[in-house]
Amino acid sequence: MSTDPDVLVIGGGNAALCAALMAREAGASVLLLEAAPREWRGGNSAHTRNLRCMHDAPQDVLVDAYPEEEFWQDLRKVTGGKTNEALARLVIRASSNCRDWMRRHGVHFQPPLSGALHVARTNAFFMGGGKALVNAYFRSAEALGVRVRYGSPVDRIEMDNGRFVAAHVNGERITAKACVLAAGGFESNRDWLREAWGQNPRGEWPSDNFLIRGTAFNQGVLLRHLLDDHGADRIGDPTQAHMVAIDARAPLYDGGICTRIDCVSLGVVVNRDAQRFYDEGEDFWPKRYAIWGRLVAQQPGQIGYSIIDSKAIGRFMPPVFPGVKADSLPELAQKLGLDEHSFMRTLDGYNAACRVGTFDHTSLDDCHTEGITPAKTHWARPIDTAPFYGYALKPGVTFTYLGLHTDDTAAVRFNGVPSDNLFVAGEMMAGNVLGQGYTAGVGMSIGTAFGRIAGTNAARAARVTPTGAHHAHA
What is the C-alpha to C-alpha distance for residues 353 and 348, in angstroms, rounded to an integer? Predict the structure, then answer.
């Protein structure tokens, strides 16, 4: 018979693992339930590459400085102010001092790659990527005595007046003195996405054309259960998500980072009608790449086409699949299935509007358009040098932002009252910091900060539980 743990952690990604490790380090017995089988463990964290880090001076793998205020302004800009400043700053500060702890648990960082633009200043990259990070954390957790069970999706939890009592998994009831919810968003739940996004005026169901960049296991079962059945306080809009324009040929699930198309800022993007619809040169790609999924989702058929010429080759991370290649723009239109006349009108108009100054993809340069809408404000150069390339784009959902409202203790709240033994971390609460938009690596910053807070506070709650409140295993 297994004794029920002091702390139950539900989830198997970065936030869940950080919580399990911190609770175990604080002396609590810990059981971690991962819905996925062992080979698919780690949720979306397995697809990540880096962590956005505040630092006031150069630090190991980070160059220059990235002070708190600049990080905050970057976040404020991408979220359009839809963020809780106190919690955002808590995440930012926590990002400055977590790397030594991560290293102690076997995570290795790599020196910045050349050509990674200026990301080496703001983001620390994991050696071996997110899969290596997740594997390191699981190894460390098991070595410390955290029990891990795979293929264990929790379908409901029992609550008593705002207190966690038990979780039900595969017909078994598991009690614990405290619990951390870190089971991800609802991005893999096709029905919920359809319900959230609804139908557009064209009669389309946009979400039917979404691809899921990450795990197929984030069904949002616990999130919905907490919101609908237990009346937990919610935060965020169900249509807001980390959404990227990805290769339309990507698989439905788990395509991950390699499905990204990173040449948007070096060319133009047109929709099915061969019309441009947004400023491709608005800001540096790491700050703006995550708006393009939503932009494409709003276009007819939820499809776009990134168009570049050979001047762009070598200036962006090459995609896994080669683009459609043509020796002339009319031929490219034909190969992409776009109306040649409309396509040429758009491209000719754009090319004529380019005012080329000193092109510099590493700075907000002076190459811009004049007299067309939408403008291209930086990196605007005529698309005129064969061969030409086109990449079809679809919206790729990384994770959803609807979540549980929390505070600096990571407690789940019911009618404004924080639970004293139920905590939340990761995607299930990221909407407190991310009301909209995204900037590279901040999801891992949120998961790491709140995972560690949740684990620490769950261990504390497990110690102060009154005797008699902890029921024996049925």
Answer: 9
Q: What is the pLDDT of residue 464?
A: 73
Interatomic CA distance for residues 418 and 420, integer angstroms: 6
Tokens 């358009």 correspond to 369
52 and 177 both lie in a single domain? yes
For 457-469, how does the pLDDT look when each residue is reduced to its tens digit (9 = 90+)?
Answer: 999 999 975 544 4
What does the alpha-carbon distance between residue 308 and residue 416 come to, in Å, rounded to a whole number? 51
For residues 158 and 48, state if they share a domain.
yes
Residue with tokens 């169901």: 205
Give the number of domains in the chain: 2
Q: Which residue has the higher pLDDT, 316 or 231?
A: 231
| Domain stops at, among 351, 379, 396 | 396
Which of 396, 425, 450 is where one domain is finished?
396
Domain span holding position 264: 242-396
Tokens of 468: 């008699």
Residue 204 three-state SS: coil
Average pLDDT over residues 52-74: 94
Give the mean model confidence (pLDDT) for residues 386-410. Answer: 98
Over residues 385-394, the mean pLDDT reads: 98
φ, ψ of residue 86 to 5 degrees: the values are -65, -45
pLDDT at 118: 61
> 342: part of which helix (H) or strand (E)?
helix 340-353
> What is the pTM (predicted TM-score) of this model?
0.92
What secondary structure does DSSP assign to 174-197, as a single string? EE-SEEEE----STT-HHHHHHHH
Same domain assignment for residues 149 and 41: yes
Between CA 340 and CA 154 the distance in angstroms is 53
